[in-house]
Inverse folding.
């Protein structure tokens, strides 16, 4: 009696496990490939942006000529105060001055071609080696760019964090309320006031200074603390809060009405969808409809705006901080541009570029979490 050999056929459960493993492997490989490509692209973008910043900040090497002129002028003024220099012969003076100029140019790296130094700046910046400032110093007298930035960061975070968070959540909830009152007097008022956001924050800041500081004299003209500063901690906090009111108000007013108008229009678009009308027919309350059928579909856009808002906290408001004499990164950036201090400009730029790249990278994964229609790596 012969027995016929039959090939082994896995059961249905085993087949499902095999398919599940294959699907998991395929998903992992797709996500890994997408992550690698995305990281490479973002890194190349950051490197390109920083290199262009270096070229622009140095004006293609023109700033080198300005620095060389400043070196010669500074050394000439310094030598005029040196009695030993005055006793030298003209040839000796010329040789001695030339040697001092050569040493100073070598210390600042001006003895090397600009293109070589530009790539060195780029390499150091990409590894967050920010180097030393050319002219600017921190409050402690240090020329380390890292210390200069860290010293100015808390005031900028305070100003931009307060104003942007109030602006974001205030405009979001106000727009949601207006979307329920389409065509009302408040809705028309916001539409009429939205063009006022075309003016920058410092423009409104000047009017606020004129009204509340110069005329009413209830708020300070600028700065972060009074002189002399308060001796107690609570007094210091209250003084900072008092100085914060005008610059934060200028930043909020300059974008408030347009931000409300944009969100209100966005919510109105989603509130006219068929599934919203169906939810109303089922008898759901306005709160439930807003939470489940209006806010939830707009969540990716809300997250994107909030993420980009967090990044802008780092940049500061260049002209507004300068107008109010607020000691933040925006004013530091403005000062660095005026002094042609390339290391400080590049240091601010590289950190912002890395923050922006990381945010853009993480947003793809956040979208996949909040919206099941989005799949990472799908074309």
């Amino acid at each position: 009696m012969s027995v016929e050999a039959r090939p082994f056929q896995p059961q249905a459960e085993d087949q499902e496990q095999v398919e599940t493993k294959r699907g998991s492997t395929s998903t992992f490989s797709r996500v890994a490939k997408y992550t690698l490509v995305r990281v490479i692209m973002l890194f190349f973008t950051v490197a390109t942006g920083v290199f262009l910043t270096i070229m622009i900040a140095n004006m293609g090497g023109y700033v080198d000529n300005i620095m060389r002129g400043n070196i010669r002028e500074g050394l000439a003024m310094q030598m005029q105060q040196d009695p030993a220099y005055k006793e030298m012969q003209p040839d000796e003076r010329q040789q001695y001055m030339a040697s001092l100029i050569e040493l100073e140019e070598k210390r600042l790296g001006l003895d090397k071609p600009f293109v070589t130094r530009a790539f060195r700046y780029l390499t150091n910046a990409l590894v967050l080696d920010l180097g030393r400032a050319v002219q600017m110093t921190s409050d402690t007298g240090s020329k380390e760019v890292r210390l200069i930035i860290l010293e100015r960061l808390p005031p900028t975070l305070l100003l931009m964090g307060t104003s942007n968070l109030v602006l974001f959540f205030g405009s979001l909830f106000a727009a949601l309320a207006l979307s329920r009152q389409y065509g009302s007097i408040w809705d028309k008022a916001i539409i009429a006031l939205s063009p006022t956001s075309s003016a920058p924050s410092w423009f409104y800041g000047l009017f606020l200074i004129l009204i509340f500081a110069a005329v009413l004299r209830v708020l300070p003209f600028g700065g972060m603390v009074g002189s002399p500063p308060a001796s107690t901690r609570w007094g210091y906090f209250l003084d900072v809060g008092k100085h914060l009111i005008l610059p934060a108000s200028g930043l909020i007013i300059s974008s408030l009405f347009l931000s409300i108008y944009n969100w209100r229009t966005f919510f109105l678009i989603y509130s006219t969808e068929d599934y919203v009308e169906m939810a109303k027919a089922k008898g759901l309350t306005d709160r439930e409809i807003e939470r489940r059928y209006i806010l939830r579909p707009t969540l990716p856009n809300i997250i994107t705006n909030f993420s980009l808002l967090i990044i802008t906290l780092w940049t500061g408001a260049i002209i507004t901080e300068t107008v109010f004499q607020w000691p933040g990164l925006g004013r530091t950036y403005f000062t660095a541009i005026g002094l042609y201090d390339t290391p400080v400009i590049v240091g601010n730029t590289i950190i912002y570029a890395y923050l922006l790249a990381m945010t853009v990278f993480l947003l793809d994964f956040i979208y996949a979490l909040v919206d099941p229609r989005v799949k990472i790596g799908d074309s």
User: Anything to note?
Assistant: The CA atoms of residues 35 and 285 lie 42 Å apart. DSSP finds 15 helices and no strands in the chain.
